[in-house]
UniProtKB/TrEMBL annotation:
It comes from Pontiella agarivorans. It comes from the Bacteria. The lineage of its organism: Bacteria, Pseudomonadati, Kiritimatiellota, Kiritimatiellia, Kiritimatiellales. PANTHER family: SULFUR CARRIER PROTEIN THIS. Gene3D superfamilies: 3.10.20.30. This is Sulfur carrier protein ThiS. InterPro entries: Beta-grasp_dom_sf, Mopterin_synth/thiamin_S_b, Thi_S, ThiS/MoaD-like.
Length: 66
């Protein structure tokens, strides 16, 4: 499935779920916020959200530090 993730083309080889996309990208779910086609998807809704061909994903991964 072809997606755009943070402006870059990405070939998703998983089942179309947000969780498998995050695993594929190596993102830690507990530190990630994302939008699909401009809509913020709360982490509690990730299991109920199916990605579709040509979706545009904006992903923010928060990193602690000082």
């Amino acid at each position: 499935m072809k997606l755009t993730v943070n402006g870059d083309k990405h070939e998703h080889r998983g089942d179309g779920s947000i969780e498998t996309l995050l695993e594929e990208l190596g993102a830690k779910k507990e530190h990630t916020a994302l939008m699909v086609n401009g809509t913020v998807i709360p982490s509690e809704d990730w299991n109920a959200t199916a990605l579709k061909e040509n979706d545009e994903i904006e992903m923010l991964v928060f990193v602690g530090g000082g």
